[in-house]
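User: Some background: our group keeps a shared notebook of sequences we're curious about, and every so often someone picks one and asks for a predicted structure to add to the entry. Today it's my turn. The entry only has the sequence so far, pasted here. Could you supply the structure so I can complete it?
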Amino acid sequence: MQDASRLSMLETMMLIRAHEEKLASTAGQTPGTCTAVGQEAAAVGVVGALQPRDRILTNHRSAGHLIARGADSGRLMAEAMGRVDGYCRGKSGSLHVSAKELGVVLTSTIVGGELSLAPGVALAQKMGGAGTEPGGIVAVFFGDGAACEGIFHEAVNLAVTWKLPVLFVCENNQWQAFVRRDETMPHRHVRTWAEGHGLPAVTVDGNDVEAVRHAALAAAEHVRTTGTPYFLELDTYRQRGHYEPDDQAYVDTAELARWKQRDPLVLQRERLLKDGTLAGGELAHLEQRVAATVDAAFAFAQNSAWPDVRELTTDVYA
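Assistant: Of course. Here's the predicted structure to add to the notebook entry:
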């Protein structure tokens, strides 16, 4: 992997972290925001392995996926604040963002909702439906909580049976809202269930962005060349609460501390510093650039107007 790519991945992870921490610190203006702090390597590693013709369906922790895809931090913040300059003109908030220009079909706050739609989008890709490009695949992001929903098995079964180009990406972050993963499922890994459906599957360290990128490139190539689905499980950890604000009183402090020692930003930063790809001065420059970007994004969002009341029923279909 080229040094420029490795540095770019670090900077994108830093931007995602700064963006989400800014939203978390202003929870009064962005109520109910669900962050994915600690899961940045999963987003950056997978989305960077996709092509422009591919489509993405994601969940309520979507900012990382969107920013990794090239979304503007300011427009995302404006959307979270309900302002007209947001990606959906302030109507989606942070939990339902779609961005056609980025190939992001939808963000679903219904747990597993994106799984129910992924096979249909993949079928459209396969049949050459409107808005699709030949060879395009579908990447669907979901958590271990969604994997405990029946729709997970239905979606996987349909994708396998119909031979659909779906890359299932499970961000196993160990928590399902306020409930630990091991209280709701008998296995350590969701991969076991996917394999039971006859799906090729792999689990990788979801906090190592380079390991994720390597696995995601291989997974996407499998889907693209065979036209059949693949299951990628990323073992990671959600460092903040289920939503903002959430004091995480239900989380064991020692467990949280152990996972923070494997923070994906720290892992990549230390790796690049150690092998000489990144120097201390360059790191400071990256930090300043990211901070300036997020400050400008927040100012943009704050200065964006509220939607006109006449827009209340536009783009509403149900």
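Suggested note for the entry: The two ends are 47 Å apart (CA to CA). The first helix runs from residue 3 to 25.
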